[in-house]
Design goal:
The structure is a single chain. The chain has 178 residues and is an alpha+beta fold. It is built from five helices and eight strands, in the order αααααββββββββ. An eight-stranded antiparallel barrel has the order 1-2-3-4-5-6-7-8. The longest helix has 21 residues. The chain is globular, with a radius of gyration of 23 Å.
Length: 178
């Protein structure tokens, strides 16, 4: 191979390398781009309403689900953004409680939240974990019927007909309506 041919070959490989590298990560670029667009759209709203916040979080939750299925680590950044937008402290406890009643599915278990303020892990069996729950503003309180009772407090991020998203000091929990 002549020197000129070698330099042409090498130059072509160098020029094609960034294209090939980008081609290996189409999912990554798509989720990062969608996440950045969602954040930019929300930040453009000068005084976001609760409906704007709820729509934004719902959009991020759907994007996070896709990133997990796509096996990218983008869900971590999306989760961190979700955590920055809890429900307002003065949220309507009665309205949120009525949305919570029913069956929900988490990544590991299914749950039934009853109108009387009790919950149980499904399927209902004699030894199934169960307890009580209540909502006060944007705070979700959960007491597991153990000895001694395990009392936990979470901050609600979102409750809709389809999504229940809440967090403690370190983790975010996601449940979806069945």
């Amino acid at each position: 191979m002549r020197r000129r041919d070698f330099i042409s070959f090498l130059g072509g490989a160098v020029a094609a390398w960034p294209v090939a590298a980008r081609g290996e990560q189409p999912e990554y670029s798509r989720y990062v781009g969608a996440f950045q667009r969602a954040r930019r759209d929300y930040q453009r709203i000068s005084h976001p309403s609760e409906a704007d916040r709820s729509n934004y979080i719902t959009r991020l939750v759907r994007l996070r689900e896709k990133a997990i299925v796509g096996k990218t680590y983008d869900w971590l950044a999306i989760g961190a953004e979700i955590k920055q937008h809890p429900a307002p402290p003065q949220s309507d406890s009665k309205a949120l409680s009525s949305l919570l009643v029913g069956q929900w599915k988490s990544p590991r278990h299914d749950y039934l939240y009853r109108i009387d303020g009790t919950w149980t892990m499904l399927p209902i069996e004699d030894d199934a974990p169960h307890g009580t729950w209540r909502i006060d503003g944007n705070q979700y309180f959960d007491t597991t019927a153990t000895e001694p009772p395990l009392k936990l407090q979470y901050t609600i991020i979102l409750i809709t007909k389809k999504d229940f998203v809440f967090m403690d000091q370190t983790n975010i929990f996601y449940e979806t309506r069945q």
